[in-house]
Design brief:
Among the domains are: 133 residues, Rossmann fold (3-Layer(aba) Sandwich), CATH 3.40.50; 154 residues, no CATH class; 155 residues, no CATH class. It is α+β, with helices and mostly antiparallel strands. The strands form five sheets. Strands 1, 2, 3, 15, 16, 17, 18 and 19 form an eight-stranded mixed sheet that branches. A four-stranded parallel sheet has the order 5-4-9-10. The longest helix has 33 residues. Strand 20 and strand 21 form a beta hairpin. The protein contains 27 helices and 21 strands.
C-alpha cells in the first residue's frame, strides 16, 4: 500500500479525505486501498482505460465554450470514487433537508407576503437590486407551498474537517444526470468493491423526483380540466404530462439533459415546442396540442418567457409566467428562484433559519459579507488579503478577485470600486478546501486534488429527500482555489456506504388500470418527428455515399483508365450529384466541357470526399447525422447512441495525410456501422409514428438514390459492365445466387425495380412508403401523399418486363423522373403538414 501513496502529497493546511493526521488511511477508504495494493499495475491501467472508453463510446460530453472540441468534448471522470461513510452522510443529509426547507420558505415569502422585508430580516435593496427578482412572479401560488422542487448545493470541507456550504443552486441545477452516468461507469469497473461496501443506489432519488412532479402535475391537470372543457380529466392511473425544458443542443450540459429526460421518461422539449393558449401550456405534437401539466426546466429564469421576463429571449415560451400565475402548470423550480443563488444571502441565513424554522442552521455557509452594509464594507477593506471578492448579483458579470493576488495599485483600485458601489459585491473567506485521492495515470499511483461536492435534494409530498451521493468535482492544474467544469475540471462518482441493504420504496402510490395502458407515443413533438425523419434520411444517405466512394476507389485501384472508361463516367456523375466531385465546367453557351483528370487528381478528390470537413463530404454528412442523433438522444437506446458516437469519433481521429487504403478502411467501418444501425432500427425500435417517420425518411432517400442511379446507368453504353451497379445497391449476392451468370439489363432491372423480396428494390421502397404514409394519414387525415405513391407503385407493377426493362425505354425513363419528382413533393408536403407547426 505504501507504494501506491509514494507520490501522494500531504498538505497540513488542508483536510485530507484519504489519510488521518497521523498518515493512516481512513477506515472507509481501507477496502479500496487494499484492493489496489493487491492488484498488478496492469489491472488498474485497464480500469482507467475502461472509464475513458466508456465515456468516449457512450458519448458523455460537456461543452466547454472555449474548447475547440465543442459538442464532442468528453466528460472528464476520475477512476477512483469519492467515498463517504454513512454516519457522516446522515449529518450532511439532515443539513441539506433543513437548508432546502429554509430556502423554500424564503422564496415563498419574498414572492408572497414579504414579511422578511417588512421586518428588516432582509435588506430590501438586496432583493430589489437583484436582477433575479422577477416582479411579474410576485403572488404566484404553489401546490403544497413548494416553490423549490429540485435543489443543489455546493459543499466543501474546511481544514478542520467541517463541511461548509459554498453556493446554493436553486434556479435550474445541473449535474444530476452526470452523477447518474458517473455511477454507471465507475460501478462497472469496481463491481465487487461496490457490492462489498454496500453503496447506496441512486435510482430511488430519481424515482422520487419523477413521482413527485407527476403528483403535483396531476393537481394542475385538475385545474386545467375545470378551466377548459376541451381538456379531459386524467383517469386514476393516467400519468400527467411532465416535460424537461432545455435551452437546446448548444447548451454545455445538453447531453446530461437528454440523458436525464430519457431516464425519467419525460419528453425533452425546447421553447418552440410549447405554446400558451388560454392560460394553459400546450405541447405541439403530431396529434395537435396536448396540455402540459409540469415542467422540469433547465432554462434560466429570465429566458423562460419573452413576453414578461426578457423580450430578447428566443428560448422560452411566451405566456409561461401567466400560466404559472393561474396555477395551470407546475414549474420546477418556480420562476424567480435564481434570487436565492446570490452569495449576498448567505450571511443572513443563520438568522432567517431561527426566524422561519425555529432551529439553528445545521451547516454553516462559508463566511460571507455583503458590502452593502457599511460595517461589513469596512471589515472587508481591512481584511482584503484574506478574502475573495465576488459579484452580489448575476447582472454583474465579473470573475472572483483574490485579495492576496493584488499588488498595491490593483488593491487600491478594487477598494475604490467597492466604495463606489458596495451593494454590488460580496466578500468570502478564502478557505483551503479538502483534497481527495485521484488516479495518476502517468505515474500509476494515487495523487491528490482539491475537491468539492454537489449534493441534490428534491421535494416530495412527504418532505425533501436527498440523493445518496452527488457530483464530486475535482480541481485541475495548479489553482486549487476554483473548481469549475467550465475551466476543465474533473469529476468523480460519489459513494455513500450503507449499514445494510436498502431497497427503494416509492413514496407515492398509484394504480394503473387496463384503460390506462399506453401503446403509442402521444407526445411526439413536431420538432422530434422532423429530427427522426432526417435521421432516417441521413442514415441512408451516408450509407449510399460510403458505398459509392468505395465503388469509385475500387475502380481507380483495379482498372487502368482505358479499361474503366465505359462505366467510370456514370460513377463520376453520381459523385458529382452528391457533391463529392466538382462538375464539368461550361462554355459560354452552357455546354459541358469534359474535364480530364489524372489518377492523382481523382485520388485526391476521393480521399477529400471521405475525410474533409467541407460541405457534402462523407465526414460532414456523418457529423450532420451525429448532430441529429444528439438531438434525439433520449429516444435512442444506449447501443444505438454508442454506435453513432463511435462512427462520428472515427472521423475525428483520421490520419494527417490519409491514403486510398486509409479511406477504404474508413468506408468499410462506416458501412458496417450504418448496417448495424439499420438493424437497430428494424429490430429495436417500437413501431410508433416516430418510427414511421424515420422509416419514411429512409425510404424517400433510397427512392431518390435509385431514381438517379438508374437514370444515369441507363444512359451507359450497351457494353457496360453491370457488376458495379449491383454492388452499389447491395444486390450482387442475390443476383449471383439466382443467375450464376454475367449481369444483363433485364434481370438486373427486374431485381432493382420490381422484385418485392429485395429490400433494396424500388417496389420495396414504394410499398413501405405507401403503407406508412397511409397509417399516418389514417391518424392525422390524409394529405394525398399515400395515394400518389400508390399510383406510382401500380404503374410499376403494370410494366411488361420484356418491353420496359431495357435501355432506352422512354416509358421507364419517364416513370423514374416522375417518381423522383414525387419523392420531392412528398418530402415537402410532410414538412408543411407536420414539421412546420402552425397550430393544429
Amino acid at each position: 500500500m505504501s507504494l501506491l501513496l509514494t507520490s501522494y502529497p500531504r498538505q497540513p493546511d488542508r483536510h485530507d479525505e484519504l489519510l488521518t493526521e497521523t498518515g493512516e488511511p481512513r477506515q472507509h477508504w481501507q477496502a479500496l486501498l487494499e484492493m489496489l495494493a493487491m492488484e498488478a499495475p496492469a489491472e488498474m491501467r485497464e480500469r482507467a482505460e475502461s472509464v475513458r472508453r466508456q465515456v468516449r463510446e457512450n458519448g458523455v460530453t460537456y461543452n466547454v465554450y472555449a474548447d475547440t472540441k465543442g459538442l464532442q468534448r468528453p466528460w472528464d471522470l476520475d477512476v477512483l470514487p469519492f467515498i463517504l461513510p454513512h454516519e457522516e452522510w446522515a449529518g450532511i443529509e439532515s443539513a441539506i433537508i433543513q437548508r432546502a426547507q429554509l430556502l423554500n420558505s424564503i422564496l415563498l415569502d419574498v414572492y408572497g407576503e414579504q414579511q422578511l422585508l417588512q421586518q428588516e430580516q432582509l435588506p430590501p435593496s438586496l432583493i430589489h437590486g437583484h436582477a433575479g427578482f422577477l416582479r411579474p412572479c410576485h403572488g404566484i401560488r404553489h401546490p403544497d407551498d413548494i416553490a423549490l422542487h429540485f435543489y443543489a448545493v455546493d459543499l466543501a470541507r474546511s481544514p478542520d474537517g467541517s463541511w461548509w456550504v459554498v453556493a446554493d443552486r436553486t434556479q435550474a441545477p445541473s449535474g444530476a444526470g452526470y452523477a447518474l452516468e458517473n455511477r454507471t461507469v465507475i460501478a462497472s469497473v469496481f463491481p465487487d468493491l461496490f457490492r462489498d461496501l454496500n453503496i447506496q443506489r441512486l435510482s430511488g432519488f430519481f424515482n422520487s423526483l419523477r413521482d413527485s412532479l407527476n403528483h403535483w402535475g396531476r393537481e394542475c391537470a385538475q385545474r386545467q380540466s375545470a378551466l377548459d372543457a376541451r381538456i379531459a380529466p386524467l383517469s386514476v392511473g393516467e400519468q400527467p404530462l411532465t416535460v424537461l425544458l432545455t435551452p437546446g443542443p448548444y447548451n454545455e450540459t445538453y447531453h446530461e439533459q437528454s440523458y436525464l429526460a430519457g431516464y425519467l421518461g419525460f419528453p425533452l422539449v425546447q421553447g418552440n415546442d410549447l405554446t400558451v393558449r388560454n392560460g394553459v401550456v400546450w405541447l405541439k405534437t403530431l396529434s395537435g396540442l396536448k396540455p402540459v401539466h409540469a415542467i422540469l426546466r433547465r432554462l434560466d429564469d429570465d429566458f423562460c418567457d419573452p413576453l414578461e421576463l426578457n423580450a430578447d429571449s428566443v428560448l422560452g415560451v411566451a405566456g409561461l409566467t401567466d400560466a404559472a400565475r393561474r396555477g395551470n402548470v407546475l414549474i420546477a423550480n418556480s420562476l424567480g428562484s435564481n434570487l436565492l443563488q446570490s452569495g449576498a444571502l448567505l450571511g443572513f441565513l443563520p438568522g432567517l433559519c431561527e426566524r422561519l424554522l425555529g432551529q439553528p442552521l445545521q451547516m454553516p455557509s462559508v463566511a460571507t459579507w455583503w458590502c452593502g452594509e457599511p460595517l461589513a464594507l469596512q471589515s472587508v477593506i481591512a481584511n482584503l488579503d484574506t478574502l475573495v471578492i465576488k459579484p452580489a448579483f448575476p447582472q454583474i458579470q465579473e470573475r472572483p478577485i483574490f485579495g492576496a493576488d493584488l499588488d498595491a495599485e490593483a488593491r487600491a483600485a478594487l477598494i475604490e470600486k467597492l466604495r463606489q458601489a458596495p451593494q454590488n459585491y460580496i466578500a468570502q473567506e478564502m478557505v483551503n478546501i479538502s483534497q481527495a485521492p485521484v488516479w495518476d495515470g502517468h505515474g500509476q499511483q494515487v495523487s491528490a486534488r482539491a475537491v468539492g461536492l454537489r449534493v441534490y435534494a428534491c421535494a416530495t409530498p412527504q418532505g425533501y429527500v436527498v440523493m445518496p451521493g452527488g457530483l464530486t468535482r475535482v480541481a485541475t492544474g495548479l489553482d486549487n482555489r476554483v473548481i469549475t467544469m467550465q475551466r476543465g475540471g474533473t469529476s468523480k462518482d460519489t459513494w455513500v456506504t450503507a449499514p445494510h441493504s436498502m431497497a427503494y420504496r416509492s413514496l407515492i402510490r398509484h394504480t394503473t388500470s387496463s384503460r390506462d395502458l399506453v401503446r403509442s407515443d402521444a407526445f411526439l413533438s413536431s420538432r422530434m418527428v422532423e429530427n427522426l425523419f432526417w435521421f432516417g434520411r441521413y442514415a441512408v444517405r451516408n450509407h449510399h455515399i460510403a458505398r459509392l466512394l468505395r465503388t469509385a476507389i475500387h475502380y481507380l485501384l483495379e482498372f487502368s483508365p482505358e479499361h474503366r472508361a465505359v462505366e467510370w463516367p456514370t460513377v463520376q456523375q453520381l459523385c458529382v450529384w452528391y457533391g463529392l466531385m466538382p462538375p464539368d465546367e461550361e462554355d459560354d453557351l452552357g455546354h459541358a466541357i469534359p474535364t480530364t483528370l489524372s489518377d492523382e487528381d481523382i485520388e485526391a478528390l476521393l480521399v477529400a470526399a471521405v475525410y474533409d470537413s467541407g460541405a457534402n463530404t462523407l465526414a460532414s454528412n456523418v457529423q450532420h447525422f451525429f448532430h441529429l442523433a444528439f438531438k434525439l438522444r433520449e429516444r435512442l437506446s444506449d447501443d444505438n447512441w454508442r454506435m453513432i458516437n463511435q462512427m462520428s469519433q472515427r472521423f475525428g481521429q483520421g490520419h494527417a495525410e490519409p491514403t486510398l487504403s486509409d479511406a477504404l478502411e474508413q468506408l468499410d467501418e462506416t458501412t458496417l456501422g450504418l448496417v448495424t444501425l439499420a438493424g437497430f432500427t428494424l429490430d429495436g425500435m417500437t413501431r410508433d409514428h416516430g418510427w414511421r417517420f424515420l422509416s419514411i425518411g429512409r425510404r424517400i432517400e433510397r427512392l431518390q438514390f435509385l431514381c438517379i442511379l438508374l437514370l444515369r446507368a441507363l444512359a451507359m453504353p450497351v457494353q457496360a459492365n453491370l457488376d458495379w451497379l449491383l454492388e452499389l445497391t447491395d444486390s450482387i449476392v442475390t443476383y449471383r445466387a439466382r443467375y450464376s451468370a454475367q449481369p444483363e439489363w433485364l434481370p438486373v432491372l427486374d431485381l432493382l425495380l420490381m422484385d418485392e423480396n429485395n429490400p433494396n428494390a424500388m417496389v420495396f421502397q414504394l410499398k413501405g412508403l405507401a403503407k406508412y404514409l397511409g397509417q399516418i394519414g389514417a391518424t392525422y387525415s390524409s394529405g394525398g401523399e399515400a395515394e400518389r405513391i400508390s399510383e406510382l407503385l401500380t404503374q410499376l407493377r403494370g410494366f411488361d418486363p420484356d418491353a420496359t426493362l431495357c435501355q432506352g425505354n422512354i416509358q421507364l425513363i419517364n416513370w423514374l423522373n416522375a417518381t423522383y419528382q414525387a419523392s420531392l413533393q412528398v418530402s415537402n408536403q410532410l414538412n408543411l403538414r407536420f414539421f412546420s407547426y402552425s397550430g393544429r
